[in-house]
C-alpha cells in the first residue's frame, strides 16, 4: 500500500468538509450518536463519551441506524442498571441493534432468570478453578511454543500470530473441539459478531445465517458424540449431560445461540486484550520498564489491561416498565445501552482514568466483565491466559516494539484489532 | 441492630453494627471491611464474598442454594462451613454472628 501526496491531500479535504463526526465537541449535544461503528474503528469514540459523561450522562439518541436508544455512560449508573435485571431485561437483545427477527438464537446471556440461571449453571463448571488448575500447565506449554516460534527482529502481525492463535487453542480445549479444525472457531466467532446489529454493513443477515448453520451442523455431531460418552468438563459434554439442558439440541437455534455465546465470549474478548496490552505497553514505555523491574505486577497489570481495552464496548438492556433514572424518563420497551468503555474512563470513580498504570490500586474495579447476574463467567480463564502470556513474554523479550498503527475492528461491540505490526527484541542472556 | 464480626485471615477482627435487611456481604462492603470483594455486587455470579461461618451459627444462617453451590466451585479452600456472604440475608436473628474470611477472594 502506498500513501502518495495526492491521496493524502484528498483525505485532508474530506476530513474538514464531511467528517464532522470525528469531533463530537463540534456537534449539537442532542445529535450525538455514539453507537456508530466507525467511531470505534477510527478510535475517536473517547471524546464522545467524555462529553456525554460531562454534559449528559444519561443520553437519548432519538434516531440512529439501530433506532432510538439511551446511553448510560457513568460507572455508577452502569452498575445500577446492570444490577437491576428485573426492570432492565436481557431477553433476546444484548447489543444496541435488535437481532434479526428471522434468525433468533436464544442464549443464556440474552435471557432473564430462571432460564438464564439454569443454563449458565450447566456450562459454568468448564471454567471453574478446579478445571483451571489443570489447564494452567497446558496453557503455559502452548504459550511458550507460540512465543518460541515467533520471528525475532522482523515485522509480523501480533494479532494473527499470538492473540488469535492462543485464544483459539484455549477455546478448542474448553469445547474439546477437534484441534486440527480449531481455526473454524474464530471464523464462526467473527461471523457471529459481524452483523448489522453492531454496525457491520459488509455482511448481510442472510450471509451470516448460512455460515452459522454450518457451525450448528458441526457442533450437533459433537453433541451426539459427547451424549454417548461419560460426562466430562468441556462445554458440550456439560450441556449434554445436565438435566436442565440435555434436550437443548431439540431446539437447534437455542443450541446455536449458546454456542455463539461461548465461542464469542472465549474468543473475541481475550484476543483483543492480548493485543491491547502490547499496544498500551508500547505507548507507555515507563510502564514496560516498571513491569520488567517488578514482574510480580503481572496480575495487577492484567486487570488494568482489561479495564483499558474494555474488549466488549457495551451491553444493552430493554426496559420492562416506565422508570425514571437520573432525572430522565425511560419508557417501557426502550433500548438502554450501558457503555462499559465509558464507565471504565469515569474519573469520578477511577482516578486518572485515561492513564494506563500497571500498578493501579483497585485495578480490579472495572466494568469490563459487567456487573450483576450476567457478569462474565469466564473472567478467571481470561485473566489466567493473559497472566501466563505476560509471564512468558517477560522471560523472552526485552521489548515488543509496535512499528505501525493498529487496524481496528468496525464494531460498537467488539473493541479490537485486526492488525498490529510488531518487532520483537530478544532479551540478552 | 445485629452486630456482625468479620475476622480477616491474619486474625484482625472488624465489628459492625448494621440494621437488619440486605445481606452479610453488604454489611461488610458498606462498612469498608477489607477482604470481601463482591465483584458482581451480590448477584451470586462471582464467588468473591466467600466466608467461613462460625460452627454455632450454621443452623441460623441456613444452607446453600444450588446457584450458590455452583459458584462455590469457583472459590478456593472451600470448607463445610463456606458460604457466599451475599446469599446470607441479614436478620435480627444473626445478632452476634462471627464469620472468618479466606486468605484471598481471587
Radius of gyration of chain B from CA coordinates:
12 Å
Strand order in the largest sheet of chain B: 2-1-5-3-4
**Number of strand segments of chain B:** 5
CATH superfamily of chain A: Cytochrome P450
Low-confidence stretches of chain B: none
Describe the structure.
The complex is a heterodimer of chains A (429) and B (106). By secondary structure, chain A is α+β, with helices and mostly antiparallel strands. Chain A has one domain: Orthogonal Bundle (Cytochrome p450), CATH 1.10.630.10. Chain A has helices spanning 5-17, 37-41, 45-55, 75-83, 115-123, 129-148, 158-175, 184-193, 205-227, 235-241, 252-267, 270-283, 285-293, 298-309, 340-343, 379-396, and strands spanning 58-61, 69-72, 88-89, 156-157, 314-319, 323-325, 328-330, 335-339, 397-402, 407-408, 417-419, 421-426. In chain A, strand 1 and strand 2 (69-72) form a beta hairpin. In chain A, helix 6 (129-148) runs parallel beside helix 16, helix 8 crosses helix 9 (205-227) and helix 9 packs across helix 11 (252-267). Chain B has a 5-stranded mixed sheet. In chain B, a hairpin with a 5-residue loop joins strand 1 and strand 2 (13-17). The radius of gyration of chain B is 12 Å and the shape is globular. The A-B interface holds A 79, 82-83, 117, 121, 124-125, 128-130, 364, 369, 371-375, 377, 379-380 and B 37, 39-46, 66-67, 70-71, 73-76, 106.
Topology:
The complex is a heterodimer of chains A (429) and B (106).
Chain A: H1 5-17, H2 37-41, H3 45-55, E1 58-61, E2 69-72, H4 75-83, E3 88-89, H5 115-123, H6 129-148, E4 156-157, H7 158-175, H8 184-193, H9 205-227, H10 235-241, H11 252-267, H12 270-283, H13 285-293, H14 298-309, E5 314-319, E6 323-325, E7 328-330, E8 335-339, H15 340-343, H16 379-396, E9 397-402, E10 407-408, E11 417-419, E12 421-426
Chain B: E1 3-7, E2 13-17, H1 24-29, E3 50-53, H2 58-61, H3 66-72, E4 82-84, E5 98-100
Parallel strand pairs in B: 1-5
Antiparallel strand pairs in B: 1-2, 3-4, 3-5
Amino acid at each position: 500500500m502506498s500513501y502518495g501526496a495526492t491521496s493524502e491531500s484528498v483525505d485532508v479535504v474530506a476530513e474538514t468538509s464531511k467528517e464532522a463526526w470525528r469531533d463530537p465537541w463540534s456537534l449539537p449535544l442532542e445529535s450525538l450518536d455514539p453507537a456508530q461503528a466507525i467511531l470505534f474503528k477510527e478510535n475517536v469514540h473517547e471524546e464522545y463519551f467524555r462529553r456525554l459523561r460531562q454534559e449528559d450522562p444519561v443520553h437519548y439518541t432519538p434516531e440512529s441506524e439501530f433506532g432510538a436508544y439511551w446511553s448510560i455512560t457513568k460507572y455508577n449508573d452502569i452498575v445500577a442498571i446492570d444490577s437491576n435485571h428485573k426492570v432492565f431485561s436481557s431477553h433476546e437483545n444484548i447489543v444496541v441493534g435488535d437481532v434479526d427477527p428471522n434468525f433468533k438464537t436464544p442464549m443464556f446471556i440474552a435471557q432473564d432468570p430462571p432460564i438464564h440461571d439454569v443454563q449458565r449453571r450447566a456450562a459454568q463448571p468448564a471454567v471453574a478453578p478446579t478445571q483451571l488448575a489443570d489447564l494452567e500447565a497446558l496453557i503455559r506449554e502452548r504459550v511458550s511454543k507460540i512465543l518460541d516460534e515467533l520471528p525475532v527482529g522482523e515485522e509480523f502481525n501480533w494479532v494473527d500470530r499470538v492473540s488469535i492463535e492462543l485464544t483459539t487453542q484455549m477455546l478448542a480445549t474448553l469445547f474439546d473441539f477437534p484441534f486440527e479444525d480449531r481455526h473454524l472457531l474464530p471464523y464462526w466467532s467473527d461471523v457471529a459478531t459481524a452483523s448489522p446489529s453492531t454496525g457491520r454493513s459488509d455482511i448481510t443477515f442472510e450471509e451470516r445465517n448460512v455460515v452459522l448453520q454450518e457451525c450448528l451442523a458441526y457442533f450437533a455431531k459433537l453433541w451426539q458424540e459427547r451424549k454417548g460418552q461419560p460426562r466430562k468438563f468441556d462445554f458440550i459434554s456439560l450441556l449434554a449431560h445436565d438435566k436442565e439442558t440435555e434436550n437443548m439440541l431439540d431446539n437447534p437455534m437455542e443450541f446455536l445461540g449458546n454456542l455463539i455465546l461461548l465461542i464469542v465470549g472465549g474468543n473475541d474478548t481475550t484476543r483483543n486484550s492480548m493485543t491491547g496490552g502490547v499496544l498500551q505497553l508500547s505507548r507507555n514505555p515507563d510502564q514496560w520498564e516498571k513491569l520488567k523491574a517488578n514482574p510480580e505486577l503481572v496480575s495487577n497489570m492484567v486487570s488494568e489491561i482489561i479495564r483499558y481495552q474494555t474488549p466488549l464496548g457495551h451491553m444493552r438492556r430493554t426496559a420492562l416498565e416506565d422508570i425514571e433514572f437520573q432525572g430522565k424518563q425511560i419508557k417501557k420497551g426502550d433500548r438502554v445501552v450501558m457503555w462499559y468503555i465509558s464507565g471504565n474512563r469515569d474519573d469520578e470513580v477511577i482516578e486518572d482514568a485515561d492513564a494506563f498504570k500497571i500498578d493501579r490500586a483497585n485495578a480490579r474495579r472495572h466494568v469490563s466483565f459487567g456487573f450483576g447476574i450476567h457478569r462474565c463467567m469466564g473472567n478467571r480463564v481470561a485473566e489466567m491466559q493473559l497472566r501466563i502470556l505476560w509471564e512468558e513474554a517477560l522471560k523472552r523479550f526485552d521489548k515488543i516494539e509496535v512499528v505501525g498503527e493498529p487496524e481496528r475492528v468496525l464494531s460498537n461491540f467488539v473493541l479490537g484489532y485486526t492488525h498490529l505490526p510488531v518487532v520483537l527484541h530478544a532479551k540478552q542472556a | 441492630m445485629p452486630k456482625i464480626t468479620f475476622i480477616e485471615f491474619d486474625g484482625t477482627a472488624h465489628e459492625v453494627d448494621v440494621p437488619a435487611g440486605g445481606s452479610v456481604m453488604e454489611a461488610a462492603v458498606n462498612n469498608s471491611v477489607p477482604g470481601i470483594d463482591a465483584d458482581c455486587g451480590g448477584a451470586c455470579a462471582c464467588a468473591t464474598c466467600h466466608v467461613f461461618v462460625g460452627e454455632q451459627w450454621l443452623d441460623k444462617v441456613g444452607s446453600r442454594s444450588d446457584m450458590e453451590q455452583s459458584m462455590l466451585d469457583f472459590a478456593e479452600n472451600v470448607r463445610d462451613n463456606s458460604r457466599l456472604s451475599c446469599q446470607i440475608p441479614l436478620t435480627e436473628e444473626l445478632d452476634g454472628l462471627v464469620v472468618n474470611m479466606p486468605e484471598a477472594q481471587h
